[in-house]
Records
---
Amino acid sequence: MLSVMIQYIQPLNLQISPDSLNQGEYAIRQELALQLYAQNIFTFAQARQLANLSVWEFQQLLGQHRIERHYNEMDLAEDIKIIESGF
């Protein structure tokens, strides 16, 4: 008999500021990326790609918003894949 685990997705509470809405897609993507990263939903690499920023630019954005950088083995594995793919 095969047992199947059902995994429920927790609702997300993401808020977009009126300023970001007025500034357009680029600002909205950055704000979403920051929130998803801060809530440990996205890795650094995923959030950086959503924001369409370089590693350095996204690190600066995190600092500007006083969001601490978390880094684990999954982040390292993704960084290695990105480096190996030449992206």
Note: The chain has a mean pLDDT of 84.
---
Amino acid sequence: MGKRVCVFCASSDLSDKIYLDSAFRLGEILAENSIEVAYGGGMAGCMGRLADGALSKGGKVFGVIPKFMFDLEWGHDKITELKIVNSLSERKEILLESSDATVALPGGSGTLEELFEAITLKRLGVYLNPIIIVNIKGYYSPCIELLENSIEEKFMDERNRQMWKVVDNVEHVLSAIEQSSIWSPDSKNFATVKKH
């Protein structure tokens, strides 16, 4: 098990309580297992609850936030470390490069974009760590169906299905990380789907 897990999630305070509570619980679980949380640095919605959950158990929380968001006072002021960067792209790069696994909780367009970038980088052999999709209330089911369809329609290789694991709740995140397939940089050799 790695020492830092990147979590992508939403900043909406209006989402269903189950999402907010799940984010808090994931923070608790990671802290209870001495795993540092790395996330987008925000204090609202699931982002804030994730950080608060980890902090409530004495955990470490590393946040990365673009300057324009920090200037809007969106940053969490109680986390262990808050790094201010120039762009969303820089934020993603730091979070992925500094973590031993990536977890996607339900979220909006930003969370989806972060998840798909992680999957894309893994497909290209750039990012090799586990990717866990937490499908609370079936939120990600249409997304998972789309990924499966992209394999069926030969836009991705059958082997790409091993790039992510899906769990129904945060209690199964750590076991999914531990059970994830080892991913090799050689995966770039089948990133382009070709005739055999």
Note: The chain has a mean pLDDT of 95.
---
Amino acid sequence: MKLIDQYTYRVSWSEEDREFVATCAELPSLSWLDTTPEKALAGIRKVVVQSIRDMKKSGEPVPEPLSTKSFSGRLMVRVPPELHRQLAMLAAESGVSLNRLISHKLSK
């Protein structure tokens, strides 16, 4: 399987451009506009191939695909002290850990 096949692509309508815009999550500075979703996806894939070639040629690191990357499940977030207090109270009142409460809220 080619590296570009493992990347995360998105195609959506751009009202501003009146065309479909395709992007690659691993290379957020790249995009491609076209008249159909299929053409937009084909276009961004070509741009990704060329960008990876250029990166390799210049010795730049090539981004790892999100699909193959390992995630620990650990997420550190800073919040205002008052929000922290409110969440801790809500967790205690619900009989769950603060971590479980926040995880549940994020999953909604």
Note: The mean pLDDT is 96.
---
Amino acid sequence: MTFQKRLWDLLVLALVIFAVAFATAPWFAFRALKAAAQYEDVQAIGELVDFPAVRKSLTAQLNEPAPAAAPAEPPSIWRDPLGVFKQAIEPIAPPEPKVNRYLTVAGLSALTRGYAPGTAPAAPPRPVTAGDRFKAALAGPNAAIAYWDPNRVRIAVRRPGQPQKVTVFTFHRGDLFAWKLTHIRLPGDER
């Protein structure tokens, strides 16, 4: 073989490796997010998730539309003295937003496994040997790429035992191989 032929083969091999790495980088970002949530690595989760964007997307899905009915008249001291007293001692602070439980380490761990926060079964024990790790990776739930383009990827995770419930994670590309989670779409009945 000539030097030019070897150089050409090396260049083609480098291009193929680059293309495969570029195409699979979002899947590796999802796997990194899943592992960071499993091992409670807050710093890694902070690097992989755009929290303001994810919070905005989840808030839009979890907020129920306000009813169109007219607001109730406040209680009167003459007609309902106990109602006035009850309203006076109720806490003024609003309840905790529903979205907060999704953006915790446990919530992200449950979502990456296909479950809603608080409904996931206990995580299986962490595999020790390489063979056990390989079996655990194949056991699932396996993430599938639902949509791919050079700047945005959607990865779908089906709930074990309920394949009709799909959680979709949307990643945006920042740098050449850096991807960040910017949106989570919950299954329809959990919105």
Note: Residues 36 and 45 are 6 Å apart (CA to CA).
